[in-house]
Amino acid sequence: MQVKIYNQKGEEAGKAILSKDVFGLDINNDLIHQVAISQRANQRQNNAQAKDRSEVRGGGKKPWRQKGTGRARHGSRRSPIWAGGGITFGPRNQRNYQGVVPKKMRQKALLMVLSAKAKENFLLIIDEWPLLAEAKTKFIAQLLSLLPCKNKSCLLISEEHDRNLFLASRNLSNVGLRAIKDINVLDLLNYQYVLTTKKALKFLEKENVKK
Predict the structure, then answer these.
(1) Each residue of 44-68: pLDDT tens digit?
(2) What local confidence, expressed as pLDDT, does residue 211 receive?
(3) To 5 degrees, how large is the angle CA 91–CA 96–CA 100?
(4) Nearest to 127 by CA among 12, 19, 207
(5) Which residues contact 173 (CB under 8 A, 6 or more apart)?
(6) Would you list the domain boundaries of the chain?
(7) What does the alpha-carbon distance between residue 156 and residue 119 come to, in Å, rounded to a whole number?
(8) How do beta strands 12-17 and 2-6 pair?
């Protein structure tokens, strides 16, 4: 499979041949879904905590005597059926939402999503990132406006963490930036286009091609 390589002016500057072991895999939607759901669960912050009747303040005294009042019997004002009482089956922060997926399955799902991006022409390659002396958003916005991902959501993948590139791209809506070692299935699915460089592409293939 071949993809176009663009320069920083948005012009075609050659073609890259993609490895079949990385970008030519058959898609298993069930595996991708399993990994994506697991990542979403692992990002979940379990902060919600409702008090049960043993944790609500007050209620030490029986509201009224058991018999003779004509009213229903009650033992505590902390009962869940009372206003201000405890919550029945409320959220508890002891609940564990973590999902564990084996490393090889996560890697396989990642390559499947990359393969789908390549097949649908949503994988874009540029020769190199512009050297930003300043973290100016207009430079990245101008570059993206010259590529097919113009006005579309796009994930930028750099060879390593670049502070100026990060600062220049973070103010753009629907644009994300990840170092190649940090990419994951959920990030790839959240953006329509993926934009990376020849160097990052070679690194990705080197790390994942079957030996």
Answers:
(1) 888 899 999 999 998 889 999 999 9
(2) 42
(3) 150
(4) 12
(5) none
(6) 2-39+99-208, 45-96
(7) 18
(8) antiparallel
Residue from 127, 153, 131, 156 nearest 4 by CA? 127
Expressed in angstroms, the distance from the first to the final Cα of the chain is 20
58: left (phi over 0), alpha (psi -120 to 50) or beta: left
Q: Which CATH number fits domain 2-39+99-208: 3.40.1370.10, 1.10.730.10, 2.30.30.230, 3.30.70.1130?
A: 3.40.1370.10
- Taking CA atoms, 17 is separated from 1, 24, 128, in Å, by 6, 11, 17
**How are beta strands 154-158 and 12-17 bridged, if at all?**
unpaired
Contact in structure between 90 and 50 (CB atoms under 8 Å): yes
- Tokens found for residue 145: 């406006």
Q: 200 phi and psi, to 5 degrees?
A: -65, -35
Q: State the CB neighbour count (10 A cutoff) for residue 16.
A: 15
Query: What pTM was estimated for this model as a whole?
Result: 0.80
